Amino acid sequence: MNPLRHKFLPISFVIAVIGLFFSVYNILSVFLFEKVCTDNCSVFANFTIMGFSLWWLGAIFFAGILILSLFGCAYVIRILTAAALFFDIFLLLIMVNTTLCIVCIIAGILLACSYYAVRYENRRPIAPYPKTLLLSVWCFLFVLLIGSAINANQRGVPFIEIENPSTKIFFSPSCTACKDILEKEHTNKNIAWFPVEENGNDIWRIMYMWERLEAGDTLYQALLNSEKRKPEEHVDFFDVFSFRYFVIQYRVWKNTAIVKRRTSFIPYIEVFGAPKDLPVQTVRLEQSAVMETETNISALIGKETTLCGDEAKPCEE
Fold first, then answer.
1. Counting CB atoms within 10 angstroms of each CB, which of 18, 82, 155, 159 has the fewest?
2. Do 145 and 96 touch, CB atoms closer than 8 A?
3. Nearest alpha carbon to residue 187 among 160, 155, 226
4. What keywords tag this UniProt record (predicted)?
């Protein structure tokens, strides 16, 4: 018999108190303030089980753990926390493939701590620290989720920063179609231009374009000058080890990664909202990529747009 089995479990008790207060706080946030912590959390805000929010189930769960820890019911707590952790592994798998919910992650951490705490408190005095496959799987998915969330939230780096652009265009200096769009739209203040790497020479042309922009050239002039000079033909061995090369290569990698995650073609164009001077009913954006629709691209890109869906201008139901 384990002499600790029927004794008060203080660590489990403290974790249960924190979990209970955290669950109640989120219940009150939804009912009283009608908001969640982040936009990502709102993705799961409407999910219920038989009409009950997961926060109600969480509050009941942690209240039960609190009571059981007072009476030292370690075996029952181990079963309950193992079942809850198994369910949270399923939720982690969903978030890995969708988006990161901060409050869900905090609740999951409390579950994992509760699961480990009861095993630690109920072990024999000379026994080693508990190790479990279930907790190892949870930790692996947790690390994977954090990594995927960081990767998914990476933002591109444009040649020139533009606040709230209506259009983002990812282009390569080697792309003929990109050059045609750049020639027509390079003065447009509603477009942000993001350089990507299509071949080994692009990085040197992009570096030279950044230099020409700093010298006062327009973006299109910088592109023409990079074609005339062909900077890839003037590369020294030590240029690869320069700090400037590393910084610009890192920026280009970020932009290229964004494009590769979404498509295999360039130019890659993102349009936000519908142009104010274009009737909304004529815009058919049924496909994920604007380039695949029947809408005239020139009628969409670089226009001042109308948007809805934020607190300032919610979409009508």
1. 155
2. yes
3. 160
4. Membrane, Transmembrane, Transmembrane helix
